[in-house]
Amino acid sequence: MSKPINDVMPALAIGFVWALWTGRAHARSWAGIVALQAVLLGAGLVAMNTGEREEERVETVVPKGAISQHEADADQFVWATGGTLLLAALVLVSPRPAATRALAIATVVGTVLVAASAIRVGHAGGRLVYVHNAGAAYSVSTPRAAAAVTDVADPKDRRESDDR
Question: CA nearest 105: which of 42, 1, 16?
Answer without folding.
Answer: 16
